Amino acid sequence: MSLIDRINEVVDKSIRPALQSHGGDVEVVSFDEESGVISARLQGACGTCPFAQETLRMQVEAVLKREIPEVSSVVRA
């Protein structure tokens, strides 16, 4: 399984359900394997929330870094 497939699997199983329960979602836009940086876009209620950056860091980045050591950070697309 490729890294992007692993990333999408973690997003689908561990991140997306929590965001969707609050009326939001997340889209993985790209992954740079050399730097380990994921570009992601929060959508729905999460995209316009004043805490969107915190959600991206505490929810999305923390889970992905814990599950996939090759991920160094998640930035807003």
Q: CATH architecture, please?
A: 2-Layer Sandwich
The CATH fourth-level homologous superfamily? Fe-S cluster assembly (FSCA)
Tell me the series of helices and strands, N- to C-terminal.
Answer: HEEHHE
CATH topology: GMP Synthetase, Chain A, domain 3
Q: Walk across the major sheet and give the strand order.
A: 1-2-3
Rg over C-alpha atoms, rounded to the nearest angstrom: 11 Å
**Unreliable segments of 5+ consecutive residues:** none
Helix/sheet category: alpha+beta
**What count of structural domains?**
1
Q: Give me the number of helical elements.
A: 3
Structure in words:
The chain is 49% helix and 27% strand. The protein has three helices and three strands, in the order αββααβ. It has helices at residues 3-20, 45-48, 52-67, and strands spanning 24-32, 37-44, 73-76. It has a three-stranded mixed beta sheet. Helix 1 (3-20) crosses helix 3 (52-67). It starts with a helix and ends with a strand.
